Amino acid sequence: MSNPEPTILAQTRDRLGESAMWRAGEQAIYWVDLYGPVIHRMPLGGPVESWVVPSTRFIGSFVFVSGGRLMLAVDTGLVLFDPASGLFTPFADPNAGREAVIYNDSKLDRSGRLWVGTLDLAETEPRGILYAVDAKGHAALGDSGFIACNGPAFSPRGDILYFSDSLGRRLLAYDLPPGGSALRNRRVFVSLSEDEGVPDGLTVDAEGGVWCAHYGIGRLTRYSPEGAVLMTLDLPCPIVTSMSFGGPDMTMLFVTTGWSPGVERAGDEPGPGGALMAFETGIVGLPEPEFDIG
Asked: Is residue 285 part of a domain?
């Protein structure tokens, strides 16, 4: 099967696009630019609407919250954002203000519990922690000892958590008891070689296929639940970060990308990096739950 060409849906020129998330009730895709820090929203076929996040340097990710809101993972903590009013309200800070450690990827499990990871800003020390956060903002330790936490994603039944240990160049899998935060049976799901890039964002489709964004080489890989390669998709830029299924039939794969001065020299014609792209896969994805905080 030949590699389908991705469609560029929005060239927002994000320095580091992240956290693609489809909101079915709005038929809209949301994503962020980590360095903006900016939140984008685009209904299919519609214009892009964007919000700048004040009083912060980075936005690593977000999840959907009941009532049309978002829970943002910014460098100062978890912040509730209401697009209708424009209000930003602090919610929790499991990281407790640790210097030079910021929040990165986050995702809700099938029970609606929030999992959010941190990273060492210098990307040298294993200071990253994966937290589980409940609806009252109470945090429990999921796992620790990582330079950069990425992913996470969950099996269709919610009994397996997949996680990107990015600088370790491996995907981990854990058993996750229903409604719990105690991860069990940590194991290596997939190991990547240097020429396979850095594992970044993850998502899981309705068949249990695990999708990984390979930062640095512009590739997506779909793995079987046993870790075998089922499919690869190539993108026209090296920095690829996250993906989310959506669209009317949940078969469209939205992909965030980025660019950097090290990739595009001054004076070069702007490339496709930093755009929101999409593939029509024919594979059905899973809807994202909402964080029900009342």
From this structure: no
Q: How far is CA 4 from CA 16, 50, 124, in A?
A: 23, 29, 37
Under 8 Å CB-to-CB from 228, ≥6 apart: which residues? none
Question: How distant, in Å, are the alpha carbons of 214, 253, 282 from that of 233?
Answer: 10, 11, 13
Q: Is residue 190 part of a domain?
A: yes
- Whether 55 maps to a domain, the answer reads yes
**Residue 43, in any domain of the structure:** yes
Tokens of 202: 């993850």
Other Cβ atoms less than 10 A from the Cβ of 7: the count is: 12
Q: How many structural domains are present in the chain?
A: 1
CATH code of the domain containing 114: 2.120.10.30
- Mean predicted confidence (pLDDT) in 55-60: 96
How high is the pLDDT of residue 4? 83
Global pTM reads 0.95
pLDDT in the model for residue 262: 64
What is the spatial order of strands in the sheet that 252-257 belongs to? 7-10, 276-280, 252-257, 240-246
